[in-house]
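Quick check before the chapter quiz. The format below is the same one you will see on the exam, so make sure you can read both the input and the output lines.
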Amino acid sequence: MAVEPVSILGGKSVYCINEGQLKDACALAQEGEAGERIQAELARIGENLSRNEQAALAFMIIENLRNSA
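Here is the expected output.
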């Protein structure tokens, strides 16, 4: 049985992503030294983790940021 994807921009998602913040994050990931570091990490993660592991990592990063604020 196939699982239907859940939008990360609202609805049934536990965490909703602010579109403005997503746009800013994408811009940062493309600019200067920070962009180079982010792109290098994304490439490394993409090579070493499965899609599900990448999703779990994304949620763990969000959770760590929430708890460290």
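If your answer matched, good. The chain has a mean pLDDT of 85.
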